[in-house]
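Table S2 (continued). Query chain:
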Amino acid sequence: MISYKKTIHIYTDGSSKGNPGPGGYAIFIEIVGTPYKKIISEGFRYTTNNRMELLAVIVGLEKITKKKQNIIVFTDSKYIVNPIQNNWISKWKKNNFYKKKNVDLWIRFLEIFDKHFIIFQWIKSHKNHYFNDFCDRLSGKASKNKNLKIDYVYEKEQQNLKKS
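Corresponding output:
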């Protein structure tokens, strides 16, 4: 279905120092053809790069409150692009995410995915793409904040792994 609304671009990146370790994500949102721009970033004390990459996409999409928008998500994460473009995510869901990581985030992603018309565009990282490089720097900076958030799900999973 084609919609003739304005297009929204969401640029995202996530990082983790140590992987796992302190991490962060960054998002740049723009409505093409308008002056609207929004920048979001957050840091977490102990997480992974893939969690931050996926959380950036989720938070970016959650910020679009009006339904059925035309959105292009730009990410350098094949961890995100491949499951969507190859429809692996549907198979994962049917199998109740058996042996998959970051299930909490993939479920959260699916809750918002069908609310819009979304195209995912993979971009090669560190290749002078202005917004990707901006999000990369900002996500790294977010991971160094003094008051980092807690990725409760990940930290609990890691505690459970240590106990078993």
